[in-house]
Design goal:
Elements (H helix, E strand, L loop, with lengths): L1 E3 L5 E3 L26 H25 L1 H25 L5 H36 L1 H16 L5 H9 L2 H12 L1 H27 L1 H9 L4 H43 L4 H14 L4 H16 L1 H27 L7 H15 L1 H21 L9 H4 L10 H43 L1
Antiparallel strand pairs: 1-2
Helix pairs in contact: 2-3, 2-7, 2-9, 3-7, 3-10, 9-10, 9-12, 9-14, 10-11, 11-12, 13-14
């Protein structure tokens, strides 16, 4: 409330008790009104919409993870068979028929391998079950002779039959039959999905590339086609080099197993070759477990020989065979390959372990084509060796210093002798005219 004083100036008086003071306008120095800004509701709605879209996308991605992984596997499989399909299509065969023939060949080989392996395992299981009493007797006799015990096979069998863990194992196995059946059916459906997508990618590869390139400007189209070509070369090279090494490994292990008289030597050789090459780094040791087990049923010392051969062959393959076969196809460092397999396993499991190496090789080749490189300086720290004379030991340097000291001493002595000889000769030369005179 405002009033005028005696001098005519405007003064402000306090409002009466029990009344609310009026709001001060911005012109009077007060705060603006408490109205909500016009942009705030729109911002809130936009933020809620973004959160909803993110949640929906995250839910859809998790629901479709299995399908996306299958498509990724199918894409790499199509890249692997792309050279064979293109070679057949270049000779007049329709691309769809070429892709069908390639897949038919892979299916026949895989089915034959699984059939032979299954029959081998079934025969070995039957043989082990029939010979279990003899194995148990030999083990009991060894324990009795070594530890001075008096075990009997009847007591061991009764203890096994009346044990709680055996009863629980049988119950769990009976209840898990349905789960195993569901997993088998799911695996077959997954293989069918991968096969169909791989066939479409391989048969319609040019159409897919045209579709992708139609969405990009000409400069980007060249980059996409270059990246596609690098991926085909690296993936196909990885598959074919691994197939060749699997053939060599299978033949080598077959010769050993056949020489030792191990049953099912051909199938075991194929098993070792396939598993050892398509499970990187540790595949050889995993593949050697089955031949070792079967060799142990024949003779325990045969299992030891198989283990020694597996270890020796792994070293031969790592340091001699693999660098020569993969130098022009998948030339990546073993440490990088091992790290990529670990990273792929952590991200996608067994699928990531299979596609990690060709993916990293493709990325490395693509970056190598566009990353600018310079000439490396001629420095010993870069090339891994010292300069000439830099690698001499303490004894060698001491000998060299001693030799230089001796050469210096000998030179000084010779110089003194030459000086003395020169003075004497001068006197003689100088004396001869005087004496002549």
């Amino acid at each position: 409330m405002a009033s005028t004083d005696e001098s005519g100036q405007l003064t402000r008086q306090a409002p009466p008790l029990g009344t609310t003071p009026p709001a001060r306008s911005p012109a009077e120095g007060g705060r603006p009104g408490a109205r909500m800004p016009r942009w705030l509701p729109r911002a809130m709605v936009l933020a809620l919409a973004l959160i909803a879209v993110f949640q929906l996308g995250s839910w859809a991605f998790h629901q479709l993870t299995g399908l996306l992984i299958n498509i990724l596997i199918a894409f790499f499989l199509a890249l692997a068979i792309e050279p064979a399909v293109s070679w057949m299509a270049g000779r007049g065969l329709r691309r769809g028929l070429a892709a069908f023939l390639v897949f038919l060949g892979l299916l026949v080989v895989s089915a034959g391998f699984v059939t032979l392996l299954g029959s081998m395992l079934a025969g070995q299981i039957v043989k082990m079950v029939e010979g279990f009493p003899d194995y148990l007797d030999s083990v009991i006799n060894w324990i009795n002779s070594t530890f001075r015990t008096e075990l009997r096979r009847v007591d061991v069998q009764e203890g096994l039959l009346h044990s709680d863990w055996l009863r629980k194992y049988v119950q769990n196995s009976a209840t898990g039959v349905l789960d195993v059946s569901a997993q088998v059916l799911g695996g077959l459906f997954r293989l069918l999905t991968i096969g169909l997508f791989s066939f479409y990618f391989a048969a319609d590869g040019p159409r897919l590339r045209r579709t992708i390139c139609s969405l990009l400007p000409p400069a980007r189209q060249a980059e996409v086609l270059r990246a596609w070509e690098i991926a085909v070369d690296k993936t196909g090279g990885y598959l074919y080099s691994r197939g060749l090494m699997a053939l060599i490994s299978g033949i080598a292990h077959y010769v050993l197993l056949e020489a030792l008289g191990i049953p099912y030597a051909p199938v075991l050789g194929v098993w070792v070759g396939v598993v050892s090459q398509f499970i990187p780094t540790i595949g050889t040791y995993l593949a050697g477990a089955l031949p070792m087990l079967i060799a142990f049923t024949v003779d325990p010392w045969y299992a030891v020989w198989v283990l020694v051969f597996v270890v020796v062959y792994q070293q031969f393959e790592n340091y001699m065979l693999q660098p020569k076969l993969t130098s022009k196809t998948v030339d990546i460092h073993p440490a990088v390959a091992f790290g990529s397999v670990i990273a792929g396993t952590a991200l996608l499991g067994a699928v990531g372990a299979l596609i990690a190496i060709p993916a990293v090789a493709t990325l490395q080749a693509f970056l190598g084509a566009y990353v600018r490189r310079y000439d490396v300086t001629d420095d010993p720290r870069v090339h891994g060796h010292r300069a000439r004379g830099g690698g001499q030991g303490l004894l060698t340097r001491a000998r060299a210093a001693w030799g230089r000291t001796r050469e210096g001493t000998t030179g000084t002595t010779r110089a003194a002798e030459d000086a003395d000889g020169g003075v004497t000769g001068g006197d003689r030369v100088g004396d001869s005219p005087r004496s002549g005179s």
